[in-house]
Amino acid sequence: MKIALVSTGGTIAMAQATCQDVSSLSYTAEFFARELAVSHGDDIVVVNYSQLPSSHFDSGYSQNLADRLMKLQTEVQGIVITHGTDTMEETAFYLDLVLPNAIPVVLTGAMMTGTQPGYDGVINLQNAYQVVREPNSAHKGVLIVFNRDIISSVHAAKVESERPCAFGSVQTGKLGAINGNEVLYYYETKPHIKLENHPNGKVFLSKLHCDIEPSLVRYCCGQVDIVIFECFGGGRVPPKLLPIIEDVSRDRIVILTTRVFGGHLYDEYSYEGSYHYFLSRKVIFSPLNSLKSCLLARLCQGNGMTFNEMKKAFEGFFQ
Ligand code: ASP
């Protein structure tokens, strides 16, 4: 098999030069290729794409990466991407929205640097390679492999800031696992919309809290094309923001999601600012978390969608 190994940076690529130093970006794709237990007959195509922490990425970065991967996809049978964990779930989901499901594409990384005890980069990398080589990994969308778990990019979220069990799966269980030489899958992924690789639009994303300042919210909403609120629970907004949402939704896209880790938007209440209040308003209820909503909204906007088309694209995710 011909497999591409694309390195982008992150903790998996970091090490200390001496034990007095703080860690810095050190390992290239060639280093990672040497750490793989390459299966007999496999050809590894090494791509040093970038050497950056993932907190330096944005969707412009993902757009360029996706362009590069689309070309690579015609030459190889699988792609492993090493990536920082901070924004791995965003890059993975972005790629999932724009890449055809032609070949397995897997992102992985590490929580420890190469010179820290318990460096998890090598095992995660080897597991990612195992998953990419597994025929059952085809057509499952872009995946994250971490800490022996396989997680769908639609559900992936960073759930630990320092430990090796850094990724969880929101709304559903993990997609699969690596058990020794075996790659196990527990269920099938659901197909979703694919979009052209053109993100566009400025976004204001805010978590709602009890003391949120309406004048600041009004100001920020006025600067952007897309507004995303992480609402209370099943989709509730404090009454002081309702006139702002009413005004903003006339000529901008307003997306509501929840600030709660799991669950969707729904309630049975009749009071102002509840889910039912918004049912008759021009807002999109997103079944995705705010980070993923942001990427989907920018791609919908860049693909020239109307409000109703965008609403359908969001609702289609878990229908
Ligand atoms: N600083 C890292 C990053 O690039 C964190 C990590 O990879 O775990 O995201």
Explain the overall architecture.
With 319 residues, the protein is an alpha/beta fold. It has 2 domains: 184 residues, L-asparaginase, N-terminal domain (Rossmann fold, 3-Layer(aba) Sandwich), CATH 3.40.50.1170; 116 residues, Rossmann fold, CATH 3.40.50.40. The protein contains 9 helices and 16 strands. The strands form 4 sheets. An 8-stranded mixed sheet has the order 4-1-5-6-7-8-11-12, sandwiched between helices. Helix 6 links the parallel strand 14 and strand 15. Helix 2 crosses helix 3. The mean pLDDT is 95. Aspartic acid (ASP) binds next to loops.
SSE layout:
Blueprint: E1 2-9, E2 14-15, E3 24-25, H1 29-35, E4 43-52, H2 59-73, E5 78-82, H3 88-98, E6 105-108, H4 121-133, E7 143-146, E8 149-152, E9 156-158, E10 167-169, E11 176-179, E12 182-185, E13 203-207, H5 214-221, E14 226-231, H6 242-251, E15 253-258, H7 275-279, E16 284-285, H8 290-302, H9 307-315
Parallel strand pairs: 1-4, 1-5, 5-6, 6-7, 13-14, 14-15, 15-16
Antiparallel strand pairs: 2-3, 7-8, 8-11, 9-10, 11-12
This protein binds aspartic acid (ASP).
Residues 9-11, 53-55, 84-86, 109, 111 line the site of aspartic acid.
